[in-house]
Structure formats: structure tokens, C-alpha cells
């Protein structure tokens, strides 16, 4: 028996939120990395290789798409949770001295664990796209955002069981995604059939209100985790806090039913549809524009973008696959050569790697979001080197919460575009600004307050980049090719994890000395003081400035395509309102 389409899809959305919230297990690496280093008696460089292996799972993200094309969704979820159970579970057994594993098996298990995360993400993308064909961008933005709170949730869970055990994170990483998958499996198996999902403007309006409420609830959840996940408390109080977090994750189940049952929709919606209001979700206008373009489709071919409408030229004709040429003879070649003529034009993988815009985008991501991820992997050693070992959980929670807020902020351009329109590549450049600021602060001061502020800024910036990147890839290189092209883009993550992490580890080891630990046999290399990461922060800061410059160049090269598209969208939208 399947659930009703208009209520069942929201239950599926909540299940997707649960999966995302509890499967971002790579973000809590810093919580147990020091124990792992001591157990294996390895250098910082070898520890960095384990962090890189976690991130290298993204290289095999294509395997999840292949699995979904041949296997049922429920089986893919089971395989993903099994990979995590095996990868993290065996590491936990080793760190508890129940079994003995060589270093290379730790590397392979970390790789397997990272691959499981990609499989979970692919499942979530498919669920959102299948159940929200009209409101797809909002569904993806909301659910992906919850991946950023995983570290905060795991910190609360660990504190409620045994705050003194770092190895507990590995056990939780192994078991919690499996339990979450089992809980989410029921609504996923009972998800409504595709033909029961309405694509009408009225359904889009109803959905827009519910997404608005869910986003406000998400913000409240992020604030709650920020305040309580890192709070110093006993186990009983931590259990209470963790119970509150679980309640907030379950509470969205009540929202759709409440809005439908009590008939609040028309009253609530009318307050957001006043003439001249700048807060109008994009989907109703997009539907009308999409209809208008389809009516004219026989006279001019349509190439769609991520919002289901194409970019037409100033005279109303489609520019096709021709590249716009600059009319300014004195324009710099970097800004004027081989410009995009339209948004949403499909690019094959071979075409993408030949475009300057792609490589500017690649460098911006490589020198922005990826640096933020590597920074989070090194938070444990950074805090330890500054004598702040007791604050590691606080810092991880801070990064997690602000990464969550950054992901939520990535949807703001869609909410305000009727009042203030700005190219999405411009927002991408703005999102990169906090990262170089944070590294300048870290290089200038080693105080605990500076470390916390900088961690929050880096989390905010990297979260924004991670969430906005899918939409940017879709708009610049075509929505139908986004799965392939985006996988090409995120190859920068394992590359950056290896290179940036190796740089940090080499500087750390160069200043480290051997000490005997009390918990494990043997010596371990430890570095204390500002010198451990000073030059790392300088180099990372310089690279983030390069990323910011690359994003500005990308914005300048694509601004004309975004502006032309918006003018045409506004013109067609105005005509549809008049008619």
C-alpha cells in the first residue's frame, strides 16, 4: 500500500533529511584522529593519507549511479550502510585493540567508508528529484544542508554515552547510518507513484509555503545544535539535548499535515504573494515561463536550464551552441574569449574540460570549498597544537553548524531574485570571501577566540560552496549532463585533500617531537605551538585568495549570460501576468 502523493512525498523528504543528517560521517574525523594516530604510531603525513582516503570515496561516486540503474533503491541503501558498517566497524574494533589491522587496511577501510557517503548522497538526490519534480532545487538545497550537521549530532550522541571516549565516534559512524537507513526504508518503500505527484501551479504554491516553514525549522535546528552540541554537561544532560535534536528532526512530519488539515494554506500564501513583494519562490513564475516557451517551441528551439527554461537572445531567438563574442575590442582575452552564449546549454565531458569557464570554476572550488574541508580534517591537530585539546568537540560542532548555515544560505538567491537579482556565479564569489579572511586571522593570532571565529567563517564559506555548486554546474554546463560534469568537478576534493593535507602534515612533522603516550604503547610525533600550522595558514590563505580571484573572473565572464537570461525571464513573466 502506497502513501497518498501529496502527503507521502513529504514523509519521503523527511526520511531524506534523516539520511543526510546522519551520514556525513567524514566531518567528525577530527574527533578521533588523534587516537588513531597514537594507535598506529604514524606521522602526520600518514594520518593525512587516511583523511584523503575518506575524501577519495567521491572519486567512485559514479558507482552509485551505476548501481541505481540496475538495482532497486532499497538495496542500494542497504549496500551503502553495509559499506559504512564494515569500514568504520573494523576500525573501531582495531582502535579498541580487539583486532589488529595493518596501516594499509585502515586506508582501504577509510576509502570504503568515504564511498558509502557518496552512495547515500546519490540516493537522496534521486529521492528529491523523483518526488519533487517542480520544486527540485528547494528540495535538494534543504536536504543537502542537513549533511552539514552530522558532526554536531554525533558530538551530542557521543557526549550522551561516554564523553571521554574518542573511539566511540567510529562505533557511531558504523551503526547510526544503518539504523537511520532502516527507519527511512519504510517511507521510501511506500513512496507515492510518479503519476500521483501534481505539477500544477497550485501544488507549487502549496509546496513553496511548506518549504518556507521547513527552512525556518532548519535554521532553528542549526541554532539549537550550535548552542547545545558543544556545551559542557554531564551525560544525563547531554542525553536530554540529544533527545531534543532528534525531536527537531522528527517534527517536520507534522508540518505538511498541519497545513493541509487546518486549511491555513490560502491565508499564509496570500501574505507572500502581495504585488511588489520581493519574497516570491521561483517555481510559480518558472512554470508560467516554461509554458510560454513551450508554446513558442515550434518557432524557436528550446534549450532548458536548471529552472526548466532556456536563455534566449536579445531579439528573442535562441543563440544555439554558438559562443558569444565580445564587442569590446580592447577587452582582455581572459574575459572576452569563448564566452557562454546561454545558460543551460548541454556540454559533454569532453566539451567541458575544453572550456576556460570550467577551469576557472574548478580552481575556485579547489581553492575554496576543498580547503575548508581539509581544514576540518585537521581541526583535531590544530587545536591540540595550540593547547586546546578539550575544545576539539566544540570546534567540530562550530564548523558543522556554520557549514549547515552556509548550505541554507545558498538558496537565498532563489528567494530574493524578484527584488534583487545577481548572477549565481557572483554569489559564488561572495561565498568565498570569508575563507581568506579566516586564514589571515589564524596566521595573525593563535588565541582560542580567533580559532573559533575563523572556524565558523570557514565552515560558513565551504558549506555555501558545496551546496551552490550543483546549481552552478547545471546552469553553466547543462542540467541533463550535471551528474557527469559535477563528478568531474569534485575530483578536485581528493586531489586537494591530498595536496593541502600533505603540505600541512609536512610542516607539522618538521616541527614535531616524539613523546610517549599513556594510552597506547610506543611513541608518537606531537607538535605544540603556533609554529605547527603558521605557514600552513599562510599557504592556505594565499590559495584561497587565488580561488577568490578565479571566481571573480568566472563571474565577469558569465555575467552577461545571466543578465540576458533574467531579462528574458522577466519579460515573459510580465507578459504572462498581463494576459
Automatic annotation (TrEMBL):
<keyword id="KW-0472">Membrane</keyword>
<dbReference type="InterPro" id="IPR056555">
    <property type="entry name" value="NFD4_C"/>
</dbReference>
<feature type="transmembrane region" description="Helical">
    <location>
        <begin position="209"/>
        <end position="228"/>
    </location>
</feature>
<protein>
    <recommendedName>
        <fullName>Nodulin-like domain-containing protein</fullName>
    </recommendedName>
</protein>
<feature type="transmembrane region" description="Helical">
    <location>
        <begin position="421"/>
        <end position="444"/>
    </location>
</feature>
<feature type="transmembrane region" description="Helical">
    <location>
        <begin position="240"/>
        <end position="261"/>
    </location>
</feature>
<dbReference type="GO" id="GO:0016020">
    <property type="term" value="C:membrane"/>
</dbReference>
<dbReference type="InterPro" id="IPR010658">
    <property type="entry name" value="Nodulin-like"/>
</dbReference>
<feature type="transmembrane region" description="Helical">
    <location>
        <begin position="138"/>
        <end position="157"/>
    </location>
</feature>
<dbReference type="Pfam" id="PF23262">
    <property type="entry name" value="NFD4_C"/>
</dbReference>
<feature type="transmembrane region" description="Helical">
    <location>
        <begin position="388"/>
        <end position="409"/>
    </location>
</feature>
<keyword id="KW-0732">Signal</keyword>
<keyword id="KW-1133">Transmembrane helix</keyword>
<feature type="transmembrane region" description="Helical">
    <location>
        <begin position="101"/>
        <end position="126"/>
    </location>
</feature>
<feature type="transmembrane region" description="Helical">
    <location>
        <begin position="73"/>
        <end position="95"/>
    </location>
</feature>
<feature type="transmembrane region" description="Helical">
    <location>
        <begin position="533"/>
        <end position="556"/>
    </location>
</feature>
<feature type="transmembrane region" description="Helical">
    <location>
        <begin position="456"/>
        <end position="477"/>
    </location>
</feature>
<dbReference type="InterPro" id="IPR000291">
    <property type="entry name" value="D-Ala_lig_Van_CS"/>
</dbReference>
<feature type="domain" description="NFD4 C-terminal">
    <location>
        <begin position="348"/>
        <end position="561"/>
    </location>
</feature>
<feature type="transmembrane region" description="Helical">
    <location>
        <begin position="169"/>
        <end position="189"/>
    </location>
</feature>
<feature type="domain" description="Nodulin-like">
    <location>
        <begin position="9"/>
        <end position="256"/>
    </location>
</feature>
<dbReference type="InterPro" id="IPR036259">
    <property type="entry name" value="MFS_trans_sf"/>
</dbReference>
<feature type="transmembrane region" description="Helical">
    <location>
        <begin position="489"/>
        <end position="513"/>
    </location>
</feature>
<feature type="transmembrane region" description="Helical">
    <location>
        <begin position="358"/>
        <end position="376"/>
    </location>
</feature>
<feature type="signal peptide">
    <location>
        <begin position="1"/>
        <end position="23"/>
    </location>
</feature>
<dbReference type="Pfam" id="PF06813">
    <property type="entry name" value="Nodulin-like"/>
</dbReference>
<keyword id="KW-0812">Transmembrane</keyword>
